[in-house]
Amino acid sequence: MHADLNTRERVTLQTSPAVCQSCHSLINPLGFSLEHYDAAGRYRIEEKGRPIDATGHYDALDGTSVDFRGVRELAEYLVNSQETQSAFVEQLFHHAVKQPINAFGPRATDELRQSFSERDFNMRKLLVEIATRAAMTAR
Fold first, then answer.
1. pLDDT tens-digit readout, 114-123
2. How far apart (Å, rounded) are the C-alpha atoms in residues 99 and 53?
């Protein structure tokens, strides 16, 4: 069925129902940035005889929308995004401490993200700071 469709077209068709779009309106534009790679991870410039369309966009929590072409542009945006850095800090904190970061104060995420940035995004130093904060905070 729909053998003439490329991956992007097929995914768009399969996820077009409203019930799917509640999630896929967020997922698809990010996933489409990976279109240059096939299911085995091989780079390709066309599929089904047509050029790959690896454009996408991301709607940030601050309300801005970022357009990108390909996974490199998406990665460059994400690496420089405070939203992404905060999410990384929160997830690492939760993984290391097994508790939500907000239990350690309302500014914990911002303070750890700022420190992470100032220390050139050194994960080892971030982990030490997380462990120290967790050990030194009264519960």
1. 999 999 999 9
2. 41
At 64, the amino acid letter reads T
pTM here is 0.79
Give the C-alpha distances (Å, rounded to integers) separating 88 from 92, 95, 99.
6, 10, 15
Query: What's the mean per-residue pLDDT of the chain?
Result: 94
Q: Beta-strand (E) ranges in the chain?
A: 46-47, 50-51, 55-59, 65-69
What residues contact 116, with CB distance under 8 A and at least 6 apart? 85, 88, 89, 122, 125, 126
Give pLDDT tens digits for 95-108: 999 999 999 999 99
- Give residues with Cβ within 8 angstroms of 90, minimum separation 6: 101, 109
Give the separation between CA 55 and CA 114, rounded to whole angstroms. Answer: 31
Q: Which of 25, 30, 32, 26 is nearest to 10 (CA)?
A: 32
Residue for token digits 């904190």?
93
Longest dimension (CA), the chain: 62
